[in-house]
Amino acid sequence: MAAEQHTRDHGVKRRHRQEGPQKHILIFILSAVLTLIAFAAVAAGEVNVAFAVILLLVMAVIQVFVQLGYWMHLKDKGHMMPIIFILGGFLIAGTCIIMAMYWVWWE
């Protein structure tokens, strides 16, 4: 039964589309390049500190989207609940960070 294809009301058989290894290899290379760019920005001593921090934050955000979208398969259909829970976690974590910063600097 698990190997059989599911049929719809119209009798049309549909297959689950599988991704090939090519896309995974490209995403792995993209992740490695993003990591190397961030490492190179820190390893180079002549880079402005503000530019390095901004570059690291941008690389981190891009890396998060790549990791969640491709390695955690959140780009696929039917993954709305994990996306909602992850966004809820970001909202709670962001609120805690903002409140902690406010609490530390509040006079």
Outline the fold blueprint.
Layout: H1 21-43, H2 49-71, H3 80-105
Helix pairs in contact: 1-2
Question: Care to give the gist of this entry?
Answer:
With 107 residues, the protein is an all-alpha fold. 67% of the residues lie in helices and 0% in strands. The protein has two domains: 75 residues, no CATH class; 31 residues.
Note the main attributes of this structure.
about 110 residues; mainly alpha; about 65% helix; about 0% strand; flat
How many separate domains make up the residues?
2
Low-confidence stretches: none
- The percentage helix is 55-70%
The number of E-state strands comes to 0
Structural class: mainly alpha
Distance between the termini: 67 Å
Q: Give me the Rg, rounded.
A: 21 Å
Strand content: under 5%
Mean pLDDT: 80
Q: Major β-sheet, in short? A: none
Count of alpha and pi helical runs: 3
Task: Tell me the overall shape.
Answer: flat
| H-E string | HHH
Organism: Paenibacillus durus
InterPro entries: Cyt_c_oxidase_su4_prok, Cytochrome_c_oxidase_bac_sub4
Pfam families: COX4_pro (PF03626)
Membrane topology: Multi-pass membrane protein
Description:
With about 110 residues, this protein is mainly alpha-helical. It folds into 2 domains: about 80 residues, no CATH class; about 30 residues. The longest helix has 26 residues. The N and C termini lie far apart (about 65 Å). The mean pLDDT is about 80.
